[in-house]
Amino acid sequence: MQVLDRIMHSDTGLSSAMQQLVTLAAEQLSAIYCAAWTQDSASGHLVCRAQQPGKAEQCPVINTANFPELWHLLSQVNGTLQLESASNMGLSQEWHLLCTDLSAPMLLVVPLLAHGKRVGAALLAHQAHQIWHSDQQQLAFQLCALMQQKIVEDDYQKLQRELHQHVMHRTYELRLQTEELRQAQQMVQKLSEIGREITSSLDQNTIMSVVYRHLHTLIGAEVFAIGIYHPDKQLIEFPGNILRGELMRPYFRDVNDHDLLASYCVREGKEIFINNIFDEYPAYIGAAGLDRLTDQKSYAEGQALFVPASHIYVPLILKGKISGVIAIQSTETNAFQTIHLDMAKTLSAYTAIAIDNADTYQQLAEAQKILVSQDKLAALGSLVAGVAHELNTPIGNSLLTASTLQEEAQRFQVQLESNHLKRSDLQHFTQGLTEACELLMRNLHNASELVASFKQVSADQTSQQRRQFQLAQTVHEVARTLQNQILKQGHHLALDISKDIILDSYPGPLAQILTNLINNAMLHGFNGRSAGSMKIHARRHSLSQVELQFCDDGAGIPKADLRRIFDPFFTTKLGQGGSGLGLSIVHNLVTAIMGGSIEVSSTPGNGTRFRLLLPLQAPTPAPSR
User: Are strands 223-230 and 321-330 parallel, antiparallel or unpaired?
Assistant: First the structure.
């Protein structure tokens, strides 16, 4: 039993343990032949795992074709089988192959089971005239049971190894997948950051530079180009390709030219992925296109000719409309992988948005220039109309006084020539003459001041020249030019400005700021009502700043609109006299020209207050390039 315990608890493999059990069985049972057979899971054959020492291995493998009877005996028997003679089962010839020195052995066939299934059989033989005692039979069964236990243990160990290998393999796969996922997440995050950087620019050259810089880092492209498609001209404009970091000259491509890759990409709306142009060109262009892979007119002086072998072309598509193409090229074959194409497709989406934004911004900028110019002309026209109306009163009074004076002079002349002139008539004439002269001087002086104010305000608004000026005087001149318009609508404007505030700044922009604030209050704040009240108040805020406030008691501004009132083209009076540029112009003039700041506060129903902080000395503008 100690031997059995040692065998069962040893770390030896199945074959070694089976051989030890077979050897022990042969010794303890005086067997003349002893062997253990197990079924191979792959082939299905019975394979001899161990046999009695000293016996030649005549047939280590038993299959149904070569040993049909022995196969049946070892694999099909349902229980322990004891035969008195091999010939009784028709095994004489087959048995002779197993044990050549036996003629009529006594056979004991014991099936080996594992997990409830037959996996093989143990075969023990002795001389036919010998009889095994019950102890020997019990030992034989015990040894076979130990063989089964070893087979089960071996299966378990194999299963453990397979499971371990499977776990290790799955762990490795999961690590790879996790790493790929991490890299993909990093790539998505990186592309998202690049996309934000691309779309934040409103200049095409900057967009190209940003995209090239990132593509060069991510892909290693030698040439990067953005082509802008002009459908009206059927041309693709390349404003400036980048060759190894150097800018190339602009050129055009005909979209209907069938020997050009860029034209194919735009015309078909499909990406192009080529790793060897000389092998793959027939799918896209004709042979003549191989000599036109690069445009020699695009090379700057000193740039070497570039012959690309690998190409990626991706159309710029936004809202189903093709606006251009991205081209990436390399002189190396197989320079790009499909992941690079995916990157280019992602960046092309951002680039299409950025270019569309740049075009829209350019159009808005041009429209804004036109509208600002029209707004200035309209303000100047309103100023002229107001001044003309203001001049009408003093000039009309002067004409009336002059005509009255003319009539009095003619009457005095008649009295003088008729010698009927009295002392009282002379006194009356001289008194009327004095009053008329005073009235004429007062009205003509007012007219002169209006003309001077008009000249100064109009000159300031058109020239935007910097000079020193008295704040109170400039504000009064602006108020006077708008007074007729204010009174005509039934409103009132009050001024509270100290006369000692001197600015070294731009009176023209200041006049336009005040004009826009007054007009904005009358158009929006006093809409549908009269007797509106406005006030301009100014005081020194510090040694270097002045605080100027414009207040009205109008309808106020809703909270939702308050944060947008300085945005270009934002208006609640679209099509009703509002351009949406008045307060945007005010903000730009205050911050960009006068170097100040502006803030607004308002409560619906309780009016609006604009607070401007202006430097007494405007900053020196940066020199233009």
Answer: antiparallel
